[in-house]
Design brief:
Length: 275
């Protein structure tokens, strides 16, 4: 594996983690109902009340990465200690990645090399200012920014001839600054479980109606429940350059004791990604 391809592979894994981990393969679909007459304050309160409260999570996941009409698929095991660590391991532990509140570490047993960096690396990859806590919110179908009732924009109904008034999303709109650029974040809240249908970012001076408008988006699908926790089973991530990542969760367990082994072996070569 040459260095150029290897770095693309690392970047795809890190990009995936920014949107990963919000799915659980479960038996029962989340029940959809009607939420008429809800105020923007009640919506914000419901979003806060419906945040995930698990302590630990483990899952098997299939990741499909698409760029320039080429598709690559990988499977991995992911373990999360809420508020502390995100760990991912490829089959047989050949590749491992560990994200904590202040660091990102990665090593490859086949190539005998490793990476040590911080969140500024992910920020450069996705052109968004992000912290570990924001990353976990992204991973579990929650708005990456704190929303208030003042950010409420409008409601969006499904285009459905049989039921044209069926509510699809509550839309919130908020500005965010990154590296001297002002971005607009749109948050499409599912009105039946108060999780995200999608979140989209675009440059403030542009419009979503422009044909060639670049956006950064995550779409969440097929919400299900596990031990009263609500998750989407599928995630579709589309970055600024039209690269896509599809995530499908195959199995999951929560609040079990986890082993998170990570130690960079001696003699491995360090790859400098901060230049």
């Amino acid at each position: 594996m040459n260095k150029k391809y290897y770095m693309k592979y690392i970047n795809s894994i890190l990009l995936t983690l920014v949107f990963l981990f919000t799915s659980c393969a479960l038996k029962k679909e989340y029940v959809i109902g009607d939420n008429k007459g809800v105020t923007s304050k009640k919506i914000v309160k419901a979003i806060e009340q419906n945040q995930n409260k698990f302590i630990s999570l483990q899952a098997r996941v299939k990741i499909s990465y698409s760029s320039n009409n080429k598709i690559k698929s990988n499977t991995a095991t992911i373990r999360i200690l809420a508020g502390e660590k995100i760990w991912i391991s490829a089959p047989l532990g050949a590749i491992r990645l560990l994200i904590t509140k202040d660091s990102i570490q990665y090593y490859n047993k086949l190539e005998r090399n490793y990476i040590k960096t911080d969140f500024s690396y992910i920020e450069k990859l996705i052109s968004l200012d992000i912290t570990y806590d924001m990353l976990e919110k992204l991973l579990f179908g929650q708005p990456v920014l704190d929303l208030s009732s003042r950010d409420f924009e409008k409601t969006l109904n499904k285009n459905n001839n049989q039921n044209p008034d069926k509510l699809r999303s509550y839309i919130f709109k908020k500005e965010v600054d990154f590296d001297y650029n002002q971005l607009i974040g749109l948050f499409y809240i599912n009105p039946y479980n108060y999780k995200l249908n999608s979140q989209i970012f675009y440059k403030k001076n542009d419009s979503l109606m422009l044909k060639n408008q670049q956006t950064f988006s995550i779409n969440y699908k097929n919400y299900t429940t596990l031990n009263k926790e609500v998750y989407p089973k599928k995630i579709l991530f589309l970055d600024w350059n039209d690269k896509t990542i599809n995530i499908d969760m195959k199995s999951v367990s929560i609040n079990k004791k986890l082993n998170i082994p990570f130690r960079i072996p001696r003699g491995y070569n360090q790859i400098n990604v901060d230049q």
